[in-house]
Amino acid sequence: MKTIKKQLIAAFVAAGIGAPATFVAYDLTLPSEGLVLAPYSDPVGLTTYCVGHLALKEDKLKSSYTEEECMVLYAKDWKKHQSQLDSAVKVPYSSEWQKAALNDFTFNNGIGNVKSSTLLKLVNQGKHKEACDQLVRWIYAGGKKLRGLVIRRDKTIPYCLGELSEEKQQKYQDFLKEYNDEKAKLD
User: Fold this and answer.
1) Which residues form the catalytic set?
2) Using CB atoms within 10 A as the burial measure, which of 73, 92, 97, 181 is most buried?
3) Domains in the chain: ranges and CATH
């Protein structure tokens, strides 16, 4: 049986998502969102399942999903959020890491919140460091400060700034080998 990591990589490669974004999706977003195979209510009461997938009216909810179904849905959601973010960002990202970090932010907060944020205004002014500094303001849900969001933002900032520790860079290099192996299977 494939591990979650292998399923995620396979789904993201098949969706045409690059290695840095796939790594952030694996290393940051997946642990932050969690993988829940059955629908549940998130901290603000929205029906959610798999990896932070918000149930839509047209969704025919099942009582449970497989890990593979969730990874395919996760890749589609990631790509959708990236497209929404790309349409809102009017300048080049400072790096692929910043792009992936801001996609995690969009994944978590929704494009509506992102479009009205000071963070996006700063990105579009080319003030990338200042934009990344804004992440620490986004630690509340339903008016309550959430420890999980504090931790998530602390982990997002180095990606946003493109300042990965040596340990994180090594972890990415190991991940990249698996990503490239999966990509080679599809080529």
Assistant:
1) 33, 42
2) 97
3) 4-186 (1.10.530.40)
